[in-house]
Amino acid sequence: MTRPVRLGAVSYLNVRPLVDGLDAHPDVTLRFDVPSTCAALLADGTIDLGMVPSITFADRPGDRIVPRIAIASDGPVASVALFTRVPIARARSIALDTSSRTSAMLVRILCARRFGITPTFAPHAPDLASMLATADAALVIGDQALFVDHRALGAEKIDLGDAWTDMTGLPFVWAFWSGRADAADAHTVGVLQEAAARGRGRTDEIAAAYCADMPDRVEIAQRYLRENLRFDLGVREVQALETYYREAAALGGIRGAVSPAFFGA
Hints:
This protein is α/β, with parallel strands linked by helices. It has helices spanning about 35-45, 55-60, 100-115, 130-135, 140-145, 160-170, 185-200, 205-210, 220-230, 235-250; strands at about 5-10, 30-35, 50-55, 65, 70-75, 80-85, 95, 120-125, 135-140, 155-160, 170-180. The chain folds into two domains: about 5-75 and about 175-215 and about 230-235, D-Maltodextrin-Binding Protein, domain 2, CATH 3.40.190; about 80-170, 3-Layer(aba) Sandwich (D-Maltodextrin-Binding Protein, domain 2), CATH 3.40.190.
């Protein structure tokens, strides 16, 4: 009997529409971790397919991407941001959330290409108050960026999805399913695409369930899934990925520009 395909997904709200019903599907298993851990589990073979940060693909020649599914934004994303207590043009140090290399690389790109600054960067656990105690600005991602009351800390929020789209005219692709070229057959791809299609039609219910213990967050969560996120990986999203990889390569963040490759192609 063929074993179930082992899936690893990010542990944030943004992935929940893409995994709707997969926890009960007999052909897959599912676990949740922060993005950097998803990438590490894919690298060591603990999982077969990961909903991994986009930059992970550049580190793994030969991997394939599940077509038509992504966590993306086209404009403000709300859950990936720089928080700063000084005007960004005056920022000399930035603390970087250790949870995602994709977002950290995006910060470096935007500093060089949009903000025109050359700050020092330091990795830091994602705690905004302590980050801002040690640096002029802080990158925070995921639920913490989405729900934090940054005004109470006297900080401005700079949405990195918005900054990227304003600079390039393109969406930004934060994560997608990928793995070894033999990790997913047509059936597995279909299972994942069906889950995504199902979840995209249930975002309000999914957000309410996710925030069941914190009802004051439900409206924010529903608006986020409905208005900020895109779950398709189409032509413009592929173009955005290629642009991101070129920019990352130009700054030495990856070995060289890469082109997305897909299961079934």
